[in-house]
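STRUCTURE:
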């Protein structure tokens, strides 16, 4: 059984869902430490002027877990994000297919940013047709840290293969996974090109997945084919 793990990021990029689609179980790591540098509370969209960051104001303290961080909804950020997204994507081919759903998801009440991100990303995964079982790490009650925690989560789920992001190469050791009967592999995703608005401005990779959805719909087969094509070219 293939397991992957990632923090619940805000409307994450296509590679997030690509890794999820390659997994039998995907774990939203909601009980790890919140980081202002990671994309727990921000992401990118494309505008006529280039990349724009959408950032969620949060109430957090040093050492808070993602599931303990509150979004500051009283500042009206949800309305601002929706207005900005509508202004930049209303003419995109599939805007009307998803924007009302996204608006309903975003404007619901959540106790923390992890719950919001998990709800949004779960619905996107469902519409992409991704069949992985989606759970949160807080359901498992595993308190180890770092590489050991990853191994313990995979073992708790009965996994024998773990798909990792490349950033974890700094602290993960293949032999540590092998000794526990787990095959460690790294995602083979690299940014793909697809139809974006304002093509004369050039293609912008690593945009939020909503950039792909509004422009191309929920055609995840295209994502799989495009990644496979790039891998074939690199062989």
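SEQUENCE:
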């Amino acid at each position: 059984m293939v397991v992957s793990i990632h923090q619940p990021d805000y409307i994450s990029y296509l590679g997030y869902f690509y890794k999820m689609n390659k997994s039998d179980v995907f774990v939203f790591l909601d009980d790890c430490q919140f980081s202002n540098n990671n994309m727990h509370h921000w992401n990118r969209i494309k505008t006529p002027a280039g990349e724009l960051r959408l950032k969620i104001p949060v109430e957090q303290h040093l050492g808070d877990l993602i599931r303990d961080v509150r979004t500051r909804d009283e500042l009206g950020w949800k309305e601002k994000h929706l207005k900005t997204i509508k202004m930049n994507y209303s003419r995109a081919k599939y805007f009307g297919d998803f924007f009302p759903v996204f608006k309903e998801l975003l404007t619901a009440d959540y106790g923390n940013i992890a719950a919001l991100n998990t709800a949004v990303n779960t619905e996107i995964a469902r519409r992409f047709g991704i069949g992985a079982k989606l759970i949160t790490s807080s359901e498992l009650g595993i308190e180890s840290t770092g590489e050991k925690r990853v191994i313990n989560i995979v073992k708790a789920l009965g996994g024998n293969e773990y798909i990792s992001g490349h950033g974890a190469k700094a602290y993960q050791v293949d032999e540590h996974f092998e000794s526990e009967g787990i095959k460690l592999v790294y995602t083979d995703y690299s940014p793909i090109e697809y139809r974006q608005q304002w093509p004369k401005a050039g293609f912008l990779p690593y945009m939020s997945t909503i950039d792909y959805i509004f422009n191309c719909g929920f055609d995840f087969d295209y994502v799989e084919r495009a990644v496979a094509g790039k891998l074939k070219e690199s062989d």
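REMARK: The helical segments are 14-21, 77-89, 95-107, 113-128, 146-156, 174-178, 209-216, 220-234.
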